[in-house]
Amino acid sequence: MNFDIPWLMEQDNNVQALVGLLAMCALAYVARWLVHTLLQQGVGRWVQAMQGRWAQVVLHRTVLRRLSQIVPSLVIQTTVGLIPHLPGAAVSIIRNVAVAVTVLHVVRILMALLDAVQEDHERAGGASAAPTRSIKSHIQLGKLALMLIGSLVIIAALIDRSPLILLSGLGAMSAVLLLVFKDTLLSFTAGLQLASNDMLRVGDWIEMPQLGADGDVIDIA
Asked: Can you say whether the dihedral through the CA atoms of 49, 53, 54, 58 is positive or negative?
């Protein structure tokens, strides 16, 4: 009986690579579950016992949940190179995708921190918090900057290029982007000026007959 030894060895290598991929995914899942459990049950209870405002913001429940979500991609990008007989091209693709997912989760964590800051600001004064200066426009500006930077880094990671190369190409697109999002940018800038110059606060009375506006300000976007 004749055996095709090279074919059998190739199949054995493929099986080892597949088993390695499955083991990596299982490790990523277990690591996420362990970190999630630790953050929710350990750190979460510790935060509830603390009185400091900044501790409540930094370790907000949404921030903790998103911190645990970043674990699988970190595990994958650090262990994919250890899988035996996995082609180099596959390793590069998987690692690039994992890096992109990691950047996405970092952006989501930072945005959750901004939401926690806004929530703390609105809650700080209790019933008297309504007439205080709104920071919503500043929070939105921070989120916009995070989304732009995050998108740039994610695309650069997926195509395995430096973000600086993509950044240099945005100059030609800036005029087109300004035209497309002109109204949105004008509205956003107006809201930012209102908040920065303290021209209008939640709870103020505003009357603009030409626009049909007559009543209390309930929110400044």
From this structure: positive
